[in-house]
UniProtKB/TrEMBL annotation:
GO cellular component, one term: Golgi apparatus
Name listed for the protein in its UniProt record: Glycolipid 2-alpha-mannosyltransferase
Residue ranges of the TM segments: 12-31
GO BP terms in the entry: cell wall mannoprotein biosynthetic process; protein N-linked glycosylation
Organism: Coniella lustricola
Length: 425
């Protein structure tokens, strides 16, 4: 067909092709730079698959090197039933063997009934603290009236929780002030709990001790897409801060994995930096993040000068109010930027449900410690080859999670063997 075209058209096609081809190659290489799929074998397997003897592990963790850890829940007095539900679930599946203390936080004074009931559910192991007004309000750099007006508008625009002032305060609190709260000062590790969630596999080892032993700083269960209208300018501010601090990005880092490469060729791509959605190179964040209502993490990571510096920078930009930046997005971008890939752990062996989202592993075949007195003889769901759970009771056929795109992106990726590629980067 090409042959049958008259010569002028043929020349035109050749000219066009020689212009387009270099751009196409450039886009392809740029895109490949951010494409770091998980390799075939799991680089971040569960710490243990199946059941361990909790009594033996708990006794070992009762020794002197027991981690300084706390279970933390932010709740309102009206959350009493949901809070009790969560604590009963954690006690039943984990803490009755390990006896970690609880801290409950509230922005209002505690109702004595809440304290009585939750202290009882936590077997007398709980402390009830209040968040100071300064940690639960607008920062001095933000004009309150303007912020309230913006919150009102976000509500009218139907932004998820955007119209609730207290929700904005909560996101700001969990993004920064949480870590410096006086009640958490004695601790190095925390497990964040949310009212009304379920844990439905037995957790027969000490996740804090394993995190410490293996040099982890952040643990998660579910990853999702953030709703873009809650945080249009967040990524730009975080990436600007990253540039200003000269924080390097390695080709196999989580930060690289979080970026959605632009399909525009250089130099047109760079023009996109004028848009607040893009970073200075014209790329965007994929919106994939760890769902922070479950976290097991190192408080010192978030108390570090670097993280707190990032929080203060973001706080001064006012986006916790002018937009509805969530703490999940802030934590995730910070972890992607400041933690090494191997310092982040996916608790794929935990069954966790919050609302309609859940992670539900299958039970490990032949690893259920039949006859264990500690574990009892309750029923549990089917064992499967390749399963990692311990006596999980959740129904894995009803899983509504995102095992696909975001988990694949954020679960310890590493650049496959493509040495030729690094040559271009
Ligand atoms: C660990 O210590 C706590 C309190 O010190 C105790 O109640 C618990 O029974 C101990 N657990 C084991 C398995 O020894
Ligand atoms: C919780 O219960 C324990 C034991 O019953 C008790 O010693 C403790 O004072 C209670 N804590 C609070 C905050 O009520």
């Amino acid at each position: 067909m090409f042959q049958s075209l008259p010569p002028p058209s043929r020349r035109l096609i050749l000219i066009c092709a020689s212009i387009i081809l270099p751009f196409a190659i450039e886009v392809f290489l740029h895109w490949r730079r951010f494409d770091i799929p998980r390799p075939g074998h799991d680089l971040d397997p569960p710490f243990y698959a199946g059941c361990q003897d909790p009594a033996a592990l708990a006794a070992a963790s009762n020794e002197t090197d027991r981690p300084n850890a706390v279970l933390v829940m932010l709740a309102r007095n009206s959350d009493i039933d949901d809070a009790r539900h969560t604590v009963a679930s954690v006690e039943d599946k984990f803490n009755r063997w390990f006896n970690y203390p609880y801290v409950f936080l509230n922005d209002q004074p505690w109702d004595p009934e809440f304290v009585r009931v939750l202290n009882q559910t936590a077997r007398g192991n709980a402390r009830f603290d209040v968040i100071s007004h300064d940690d639960w309000t607008y920062p001095p750099s933000v004009d309150k009236e303007e912020a309230r007006q913006s919150i009102l508008e976000q509500g009218q625009r139907g932004i998820h929780y955007g119209g609730l002032e207290s929700y904005h305060h909560m996101c700001r609190f969990f993004s920064g002030k949480f870590y410096t709260h006086e009640a958490l000062q004695p601790f190095k590790w925390y497990w964040r709990l949310e009212p009304g969630v379920d844990f439905s596999c037995s957790i027969t080892y000490d996740p804090f001790a394993e995190m410490a032993r293996r040099g982890k700083v952040y643990g998660w269960t579910i990853s999702l897409w953030e709703e873009p209208n809650t945080c249009p300018t967040l990524f730009r501010h975080v990436s600007d801060w990253k540039e200003s601090q000269m924080i390097p990005t390695t080709p196999d880092s989580l930060w690289t994995a979080m970026i959605q490469a632009s399909w525009l060729p250089y130099p047109f791509r760079r023009w996109m930096r004028w848009s607040p959605l893009h970073d200075q190179y014209g790329d965007v964040w994929s919106l994939c993040h760890y769902w922070s209502n479950f976290e097991i993490a190192d408080l010192d990571f978030f108390r570090s000068r670097q993280y707190q510096g990032l929080f203060e920078y973001l706080d001064a930009k006012g986006g916790f109010y002018k937009e509805r930046w969530g703490d999940a997005a802030v934590h995730s971008l910070a972890v992607g930027m400041l933690a090494r890939t191997d310092q982040v752990h996916h608790f794929s062996d935990f069954a966790y449900r919050h609302g309609s989202f859940q992670q539900c592993p299958a039970n490990a075949l032949g690893e259920q410690l039949e006859g264990s007195i500690a574990l009892g003889d309750g029923l549990y769901s089917q064992e499967k080859d390749g399963g990692v759970g311990c006596r999980c009771t959740c129904d894995s056929s009803k899983t509504i999670n995102f095992p696909g795109y975001c988990t694949n992106k954020l679960k310890q990726p590493t650049r496959p063997d493509r040495p030729w590629l690094t040559w271009f980067l």
